[in-house]
């Protein structure tokens, strides 16, 4: 989050943890508009829902996702009895990375062979070639293009028609730092570009960002197929498995501050920040691959969150405000202003800070740290020490967490107070998901400076919130601090709040 500062336009800062531009050549299709437009009277933003949500007030609901697979976290990854894939790979060095890449591609091929004709009315044809290379090798090349120093995975369009991956740096780093499922996630994205070639994606009518959003969506559709028990290669669940997959999507985000309206330093357009990429992934996971072809320029323009920095931030803090009582008071003043306008009858809760690591009890029951809402007293309380830990970047400017990771937790408690004002229940899974969704709608409202301190959303803030939602259930907790919502549900609720009106949150999470 940032305070108003003197503008210095056109600044782009590259800070990705791993440089994965993905897609040496942009590809794309004749898109059908499949996702529902946003609407409503709130100023909370507009766009498309991850599940066909609308603001019509019709009470449309999210797709019912299957229960967790029951696979223990320790078993997530490659199945012990996975078959040996029948693939021809140029440059295969028989490393662990190459073996995993081949398993991944064989599984993604199987996914499309099983589903493609039903989804699109035509036959899936795999890429003509697969190529493994080592970016440390000065002689590495594909189709007369040097790959020396290219820490990447890509689909190179026809006539090359080749999926390539860096076995020397990229895949080993992802396997080490994220987990085994990072590799099939990355290659499922690249195979999504092959799908676009088959379907005739029109580069002239769509930006690179549209192509990337579609490919991220196709990766989500693949993991839904795995989630439903169809894979011969991978074990997946909605805890450790989903964490690895969504962390991969975060890792391949654009450098923070990228302007989606301009080409990046490689001459390509923006590929999306973490929020954008995960949003597209959720579209595919919830609805299947046919939805992905419906992502078009208009829908992306309506909801894309990526934006350039309006000023040069401190490279060590990336617009991170210090988490103090004063700062949180400034933030919650904007929250009260937002909910007062968005929810009739809203009464600002009393804000209580604890510096001793103990959030006050509520109705005789111990409250859950680090944040809590007590309906009987209309009080929001927080553990300052714990919020400071959560809101302090762990790795400087390139980290995924930061001030907004802590702030979104506190705002979600105010969102419970807003629900109470409207007569809704503040307990149960729907209440917790509404709280996350309401918090997302406030975050979208904060794109414009608000409050006496003119606070506004920083380009990194939605990514920081998404990081926290992936790694902690706290923001989706109800008034008792309980949350049984899946990681996917938490992330999707936030996505819907950011891209739709607050009324959509009420309709989608009624209960």
Give an account of the 3D structure.
There is one protein chain. This protein has 511 residues and is mostly helical. The chain folds into two domains: 231 residues; 184 residues, no CATH class. Helix content is 39%, strand content 9%. It is built from 15 helices and 14 strands. The strands form six sheets. The chain has a three-stranded mixed β-sheet with strand order 4-8-7, with helices on one face. Helix 5 runs antiparallel to helix 13. The longest helix has 25 residues.
Terminal Cα span: 32 Å
Q: What is the C-alpha radius of gyration, as a whole number of Å? A: 22 Å
How are the strands ordered across the major sheet? Answer: 4-8-7
Strand and helix order: EEEHEEEEEHHEHEHHHHHEEEHHHEHHH
Number of domains: 2
The count of DSSP E runs of length 2 or more, i.e. the number of strands, is 14
Portion in beta strands:
5-15%
- The geometry reads as elongated
- What can be said about the biggest beta sheet? 3 strands, mixed
Structural class: mainly alpha
The poorly predicted ranges are 3-61, 254-271, 306-316
The percent range for helix content is 25-40%
SS element count, helices: 15
- Overall residue-averaged pLDDT value: 81
Main features:
mainly alpha, 15 helices, 511 residues, elongated, 3-stranded mixed beta sheet, single chain, 2 domains
Give a nutshell description of this structure.
The chain has 511 residues and is mainly α.
Task: List strands and helices in order, with pairings.
Blueprint lengths: L1 E2 L24 E2 L47 E2 L17 H25 L8 E5 L7 E2 L2 E2 L6 E4 L5 E5 L3 H8 L4 H18 E2 L6 H20 L6 E2 L4 H12 L22 H14 L1 H4 L4 H7 L21 H18 L7 E5 L16 E4 L4 E5 H8 L11 H19 L7 H17 L9 E2 L4 H11 L15 H13 L2 H7 L3
Parallel strand pairs: 4-8, 11-13
Antiparallel strand pairs: 1-14, 2-9, 3-10, 5-6, 7-8, 12-13
Helix pairs in contact: 1-3, 3-4, 4-6, 5-6, 5-13, 6-14, 9-11, 10-11, 11-12, 11-13, 12-14, 12-15, 13-14
């Amino acid at each position: 989050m940032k305070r108003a500062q003197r503008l210095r336009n056109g600044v782009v800062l590259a800070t990705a943890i791993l440089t994965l531009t993905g897609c040496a050549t942009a590809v794309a299709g004749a898109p059908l508009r499949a996702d529902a437009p946003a609407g409503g009277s709130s100023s909370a933003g507009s766009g498309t829902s991850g599940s066909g949500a609308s603001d019509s007030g019709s009470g449309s609901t999210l797709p019912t996702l299957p229960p967790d697979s029951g696979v223990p976290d320790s078993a997530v990854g490659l199945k012990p009895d996975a078959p040996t894939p029948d693939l021809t790979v140029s440059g295969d060095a028989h490393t662990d990375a190459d073996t995993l890449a081949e398993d991944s591609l064989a599984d993604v091929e199987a996914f499309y062979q099983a589903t493609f004709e039903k989804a699109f009315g035509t036959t899936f044809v795999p890429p003509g070639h697969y190529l493994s290379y080592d970016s440390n090798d000065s002689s590495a090349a594909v189709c007369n293009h040097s790959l020396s120093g290219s820490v990447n995975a890509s689909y190179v369009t026809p006539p090359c028609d080749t999926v390539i991956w860096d076995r020397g740096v990229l895949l080993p780093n992802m396997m080490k730092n994220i987990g085994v499922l990072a590799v099939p996630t990355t290659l499922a994205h690249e195979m999504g570009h092959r799908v676009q070639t088959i379907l005739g994606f029109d580069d002239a009518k769509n930006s690179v960002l549209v192509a990337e959003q579609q490919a991220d969506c196709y990766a989500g559709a693949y993991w839904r197929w795995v989630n439903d028990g169809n894979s011969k290669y991978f074990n997946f669940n909605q805890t450790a498995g989903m964490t690895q997959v969504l962390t991969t999507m975060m890792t391949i985000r654009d450098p923070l501050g990228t302007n989606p309206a301009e080409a990046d330093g490689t001459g390509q357009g923006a590929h999306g920040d973490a929020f954008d990429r995960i949003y597209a992934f959720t579209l595919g996971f919830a609805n299947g691959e046919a939805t992905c072809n419906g992502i078009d320029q208009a829908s992306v323009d309506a909801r894309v969150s990526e934006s350039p920095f309006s000023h040069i931030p401190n490279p060590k803090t990336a617009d991170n405000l210090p988490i103090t009582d004063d700062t949180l008071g400034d933030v919650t003043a904007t929250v009260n202003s937002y909910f007062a306008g968005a929810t009739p009858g809203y009464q600002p809760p009393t804000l209580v800070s604890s510096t001793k690591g103990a959030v006050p009890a509520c109705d005789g029951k111990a409250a859950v740290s680090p944040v809590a809402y007590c309906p009987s007293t209309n009080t929001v309380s927080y553990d300052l020490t714990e919020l400071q830990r959560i809101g302090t970047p762990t790795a400087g400017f390139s980290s995924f967490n930061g001030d907004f990771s802590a702030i979104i937790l506190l705002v979600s408690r105010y969102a419970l107070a807003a629900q109470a004002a409207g007569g809704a229940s503040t307990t149960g899974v729907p209440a917790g998901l509404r709280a996350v969704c309401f918090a997302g709608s406030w975050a979208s409202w904060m794109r414009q400076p608000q409050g006496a301190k003119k606070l506004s959303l920083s380009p990194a803030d939605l990514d920081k919130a998404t990081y926290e939602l992936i790694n902690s259930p706290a923001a989706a907790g109800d008034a008792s601090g309980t949350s049984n919502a899946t990681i996917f549900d938490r992330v999707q609720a936030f996505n819907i709040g950011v891209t739709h009106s607050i009324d959509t949150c009420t309709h989608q999470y009624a209960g």
